[in-house]
Amino acid sequence: MGGAQSFDVVIHLNLHCSVWQRHEPGSRTIVLRILIIEDDTSLVRGLKKALATAGFAVDHETNGAEAIEIAPSEAYSLIVLDLGLPGLPGQEVLRRLRNNGCEVPILILTALGEVKDKVKCLNLGADDYLTKPFDLDEFEARVRALVRRGKGRPDPILRCGSLLLEASSATAMIGEKPLSLRRREVAVLEILMSHAGRLVRKERLISEVFGFDEPVAPNAIELYIARLRQKLGPDGPTIKTVRGLGYLMEDR
Ligand code: CA
């Protein structure tokens, strides 16, 4: 690792707490390690300092091809990836990491503020992005959120074939085309996508989409499914009806 440095800080991991505390005698200890792939050394200095203060260990690479080599060698909790790298471009680094089966959450740093670049990164398997210049506090907050999600929290961005859904912001896209969805359509889609390829029982959809005391028309779920099929169109995944049981989402 050319020019690589690491700050090893032993910390106490409390999964129910968003603050990574220092080691306390007798407690379980674990090092959460982050890989930064970025060529702007003054920016890296600032990021390292913020992360070390927050209790993370940091490795740094300026070269994307070398970063791809070292990524599987450590149990990284997060990869921070700059898009504007010399040599191999960041988007290509991202694509190769995911193609190699790397499942580590990836936070993209980009000077490119254009929506299409962000969408492309999300489609390639990025988990979040920050546009430069950014505030260090925001960076640290995003890092903590991604590391926390990596510890058994659901992926905030669901994918099924060409369909992408961020349920928290009700943003859905097929390829690069945004979908306009109502709140309950998002809820139905979220459940089907998080169980893609598996049967979701109709009763489960009803209980998760509607509140306990809400009156539900007998064909309400059928109506939402019909609308979703129409919106997903020929390019999106299909929603199959399993007669008498429920529904199943599949990539085409
Ligand atoms: Ca750069």
Order of helices and strands: EEEEHEHEHEHEHEEEEHEHHEE
Number of domains: 2
Proportion of beta-strand residues: 15-25%
H/I helix tally: 8
Radius of gyration: 21 Å
Shape: elongated
Largest sheet: 5 strands, parallel
Question: What does this 3D model show about the protein?
Answer:
The protein has helices spanning 41-53, 64-70, 90-99, 115-124, 136-150, 183-194, 202-209, 220-232, and strands at residues 11-12, 21-22, 29-30, 33-37, 57-61, 76-82, 106-110, 128-131, 157-160, 163-166, 171-174, 177-179, 199-201, 238-242, 246-250. A hairpin with a 2-residue loop joins strand 9 and strand 10 (163-166). It is an alpha/beta fold. It is built from eight helices and 15 strands. The strands form four sheets. It has a five-stranded parallel sheet, sandwiched between helices. A four-stranded antiparallel sheet has the order 9-10-11-12, covered by helices on one side. A three-stranded antiparallel sheet has the order 2-1-3, with no helix packed on it. The chain has two domains: 3-151, Response regulator (Rossmann fold, 3-Layer(aba) Sandwich); 157-250, Orthogonal Bundle (Arc Repressor Mutant, subunit A), CATH 1.10.10. Calcium ion is lined by residues 39-40, 82, 84-85. Calcium ion (CA) binds at residues 39-40, 82, 84-85.
Could you give the topology of this structure?
Blueprint: E1 11-12, E2 21-22, E3 29-30, E4 33-37, H1 41-53, E5 57-61, H2 64-70, E6 76-82, H3 90-99, E7 106-110, H4 115-124, E8 128-131, H5 136-150, E9 157-160, E10 163-166, E11 171-174, E12 177-179, H6 183-194, E13 199-201, H7 202-209, H8 220-232, E14 238-242, E15 246-250
Parallel strand pairs: 4-5, 4-6, 6-7, 7-8
Antiparallel strand pairs: 1-2, 1-3, 9-10, 10-11, 11-12, 13-15, 14-15
The structure holds calcium ion.
